[in-house]
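ok trying again, last paste got cut off:
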Amino acid sequence: MKFKKLILIFLLFTGLFTYAQQDSVIIAKPVSQYPPELLKTDELGNKYYYDEGQKARIYEINGENVVVMDELILFKKPRFNNQLDQNYYFFLNKKLNRVYPLFLTALDQYEDIQDDMKDLDRNTQRKYVSQRQNALADQYETQLKDLTTTEGRVFAKLMNRATGKTVYDIIRELRGGWSAFWWNVKGNIADVDIKEPFDPHKNRTDEFLEALLQSNWNAGYFRPYPGYMNFKVKK
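nice, full thing came through this time. structure:
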């Protein structure tokens, strides 16, 4: 059994509606060229535009653009033991580039569904999730048919990094313990452990993924998700 079926169910549970698109690096324009409603004000009262792609504040001072970058996390590139190790690193980068837009959308929808369910009782919550699952099943089974097991593992690790919860935890939260138990069994059959946390200090693959995430964020290839810098793992 391929992991695509497991990840399909997870995406349906979280109400995934659309694929996210990767952002490209944007050249800064003068602040005056941005719509006023997109401008923000800093603690000193200066107007600026925040560029999500470049993670930077763009000011216009005396007619000149001034770009103030956010704090960057410099993550040391992993040491490769051999050529096979290096090839695996670049292989993971390709998988990460394919999965990351899907992950961003799933994360957004998971947070939305949590907000929607706050004021619902348990029975209404289950009906709500079930309705969304039935409405999206056909659409996303087609879109996810080519998802590989490796991509499924990457997706699961990204969700754990962002939410602090494993895919098992999230399914259990939305569908109950019995459902989560069976999906864990099926995940293990597909060689994917949906209970395994993301830990770049203990897991070699996770170390590679963290390094790739930091380099892609720093270069502006990936749009950071809210709270992406809050992730901490004790050594």
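cool. The longest strand covers residues 56-61. The mean pLDDT is 76.
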